[in-house]
């Protein structure tokens, strides 16, 4: 049993390393050749995407025991802040890009 | 065969990861950018709601759903509101704040999860500690960047700052190792570590010149990406992992691209060649007692009205004065008089790359009138009047001629090849790099002092009513 768990963990780790390395290259590939006018919206959009950290906050808050006030309070705060990052980030990016759009009409 | 909720969730995470990749890809092309942003946002929604309803650990689903929804709602309302009311000129600050929030979120997760692991679970402990450290630094660094951008904090240098920073980093890493290998150590170690990280974030950003803030924000942005990826390791959550790493690597490349646009290396920006040695250098290299000449509003109005081609060079001063609409007015008024008007956009004019494009777009300036640096530089020689609105370092000829200048080597707009140069500034003070600008003392340059918006409004008036 213990050996199976060990093997499983090992497999997960290797898989994760694969994903990380491939993602690094993908990130580089996707970004190079971006015109400088799009640097600001792109930064802002990427900023919204790393807001995916809110998923971690949701898990923390969802797992918190009803009596563990520290976890409840910090978890709640973390979800609020993470949501701010996600929603604010996407809305700001959209506002910037909306202006680019208006002009091409 | 039953499909478990775990498998459905994995599939949703896959969809989320794909939308993040597609979103970023589409964001790097002008035509598809807005759609890309929407696609990534939809993917994010799928990931978030999938987690709430389908995530389980050892067979138990998440509880506290009401709390989760209240928090989501609160964040959504505040975030949307903040993002909608913010002025276009304050975009960089806004991005910095949102980035800080993400960092704080990562740090909070680490603070809670550190109590849930046993010693020996080394890989989880590494993920938690790294997320905690990176998230906290990203948070405090972003807050300082925000403060610097809106003028609350000034650039501060102190002796041996590099050594102090390196020393602090070493202490942070050492304490991190202590936490990883003996997680049951006294809680005060954790708090010391947290405070050190906050302090490090502050000291890291504080000495860096305000003009370099875009680079710093972009860098902190990729830090937060890595912090999110640490969360991905911790929960073996592929959406967090892919999203975080993607932003981490794309953010790093973007940071390097920005540095390239300023022709500087990242180390140069971070260690701050600008700050310390430029103070002694502020007087112009050629001639200590140079004169600049001022010009009257009427002269400028006449000069521009009878010009064939006018080139406007916007800079941060335009953004501060919220003068983008007045600038567009000037353009329209001149075009009515048969003058050809173009804008020369330096890639790093303003406080963020693309800042000027966004700003002028807000004022409905025609996209085809914005020239990028290389195009603009070929056209200055046929330009009669160049109007510089609150730009300084990006037109400083010292970047080409003066090897001792801290901005030497930065590509600039070569405005001095035009027939006349009018510079609008609030005063003769140096630009963000703290370097004096020889351009202001050249014979073909005239100074028009004042707030960009007021000056432009008066100028438009003058052209409309007093020039025939």
Description:
The complex is a heterodimer of chains A (105) and B (468). By secondary structure, chain A is an all-alpha fold. Chain A has two domains: 1-33; 35-105. Helices cover 83% and strands 0% of the residues of chain A. Chain A contains four helices and no strands. Chain A has helices at 2-31, 39-49, 54-63, 69-104. Chain A starts with a helix and ends with a helix. Chain B starts with a helix and ends with a helix. Chain B is built from 18 helices and eight strands. The longest helix of chain B has 28 residues, at 122-149. Chain B has helices at residues 5-27, 33-54, 65-85, 91-113, 122-149, 161-181, 187-205, 213-235, 238-261, 266-271, 273-277, 297-305, 316-320, 324-336, 355-362, 373-379, 398-401, 452-466, and strands at 56-57, 60-61, 309-314, 340-345, 370-372, 385-389, 420-425, 445-449. Chain B has three domains: 1-85, no CATH class; 87-277, no CATH class; 285-466, 3-Layer(aba) Sandwich (Rossmann fold), CATH 3.40.50.1220. With 468 residues, chain B is an alpha/beta fold. Chain B has a six-stranded parallel β-sheet with strand order 5-4-3-6-7-8. In chain B, strands 1-2 form a two-stranded antiparallel sheet. The chains are: A mainly alpha (105), B alpha/beta (468).
How are the SSEs placed, and which strands pair?
The complex is a heterodimer of chains A (about 100) and B (about 475).
Chain A: H1 2-31, H2 39-49, H3 54-63, H4 69-104
Helix pairs in contact in A: 2-4, 3-4
Chain B: H1 5-27, H2 33-54, E1 56-57, E2 60-61, H3 65-85, H4 91-113, H5 122-149, H6 161-181, H7 187-205, H8 213-235, H9 238-261, H10 266-271, H11 273-277, H12 297-305, E3 309-314, H13 316-320, H14 324-336, E4 340-345, H15 355-362, E5 370-372, H16 373-379, E6 385-389, H17 398-401, E7 420-425, E8 445-449, H18 452-466
Parallel strand pairs in B: 3-4, 3-6, 4-5, 6-7, 7-8
Antiparallel strand pairs in B: 1-2
């Amino acid at each position: 049993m213990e050996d199976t768990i060990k093997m499983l963990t090992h497999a997960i780790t290797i898989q994760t390393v694969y994903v990380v390395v491939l993602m690094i290259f993908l990130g580089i590939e996707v970004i190079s050749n971006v015109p400088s006018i799009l640097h600001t919206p792109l930064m802002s959009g990427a900023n919204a995407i790393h807001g995916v950290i809110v998923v971690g906050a949701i898990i923390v808050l969802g797992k918190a025991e009803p009596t563990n006030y520290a976890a409840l309070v910090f978890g709640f705060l973390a979800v609020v802040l993470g949501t701010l990052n996600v929603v604010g980030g996407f809305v700001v990016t959209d506002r910037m890009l909306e202006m680019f759009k208006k002009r091409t009409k | 065969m039953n499909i478990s909720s775990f498998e459905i969730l994995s599939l949703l995470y896959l969809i989320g990861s794909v939308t993040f990749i597609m979103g970023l890809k589409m964001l790097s092309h002008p035509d598809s950018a807005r759609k890309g942003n929407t696609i990534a946002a939809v993917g994010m929604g799928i990931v978030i709601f999938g987690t709430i309803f389908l995530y389980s650990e050892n067979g138990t689903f998440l509880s506290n759903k009401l709390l989760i929804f209240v928090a989501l709602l609160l964040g959504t309302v505040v975030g949307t509101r903040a993002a909608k009311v913010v002025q276009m000129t304050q975009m960089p600050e806004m991005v910095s704040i949102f980035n800080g929030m993400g960092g704080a979120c990562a740090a909070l997760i680490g603070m809670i999860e550190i109590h849930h692991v046993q010693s020996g679970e080394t890989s989880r402990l590494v993920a938690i500690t790294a997320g905690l450290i990176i998230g906290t630094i990203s948070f405090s660094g972003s807050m300082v960047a925000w403060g610097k951008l809106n003028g609350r904090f000034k650039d501060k240098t102190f002796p041996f700052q590099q050594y102090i920073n390196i020393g602090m980093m070493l202490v942070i890493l050492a304490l991190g190792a202590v936490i990883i290998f003996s997680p049951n150590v006294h809680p005060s170690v954790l708090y010391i570590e947290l405070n050190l990280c906050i302090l490090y974030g502050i000291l890291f950003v504080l000495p860096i010149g305000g003009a370099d803030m875009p680079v710093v924000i972009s860098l902190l942005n990729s830090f937060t990406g890595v912090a999110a990826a640490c969360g991905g390791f911790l929960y073996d959550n592929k959406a967090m992992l892919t999203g975080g790493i993607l932003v981490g690597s794309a953010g790093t490349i973007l940071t390097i691209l920005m540095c390239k646009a300023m022709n500087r290396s990242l180390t140069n920006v971070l260690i701050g060649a600008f700050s310390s040695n430029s103070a002694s250098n502020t007087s112009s290299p050629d001639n200590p007692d140079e004169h600049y000449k001022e010009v009257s509003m009427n002269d400028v109005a006449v000069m521009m009205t009878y010009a064939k081609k006018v080139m406007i060079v916007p800079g941060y001063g335009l953004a501060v004065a919220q003068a983008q609409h007045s600038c567009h007015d000037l353009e329209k008024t001149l075009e009515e008089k048969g003058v050809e008007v173009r804008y020369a956009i330096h890639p790093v004019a303003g406080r963020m790359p693309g800042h000027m494009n966004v700003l002028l777009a807000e004022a409905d300036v025609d996209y085809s009138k914005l020239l990028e640096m290389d195009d603009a530089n070929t056209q200055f020689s046929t330009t009669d009047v160049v109007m510089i609105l609150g730009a300084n370092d990006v037109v400083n000829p010292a970047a080409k001629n003066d090897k001792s200048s801290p901005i030497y080597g930065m590509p600039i707009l070569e405005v001095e090849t035009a027939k006349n140069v009018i510079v609008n500034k609030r005063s003769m003070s140096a630009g963000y790099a703290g370097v004096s600008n020889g351009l202001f003392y050249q014979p073909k340059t005239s100074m028009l002092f004042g707030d960009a918006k007021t000056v432009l409004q008066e100028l438009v008036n003058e052209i409309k009513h007093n020039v025939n």
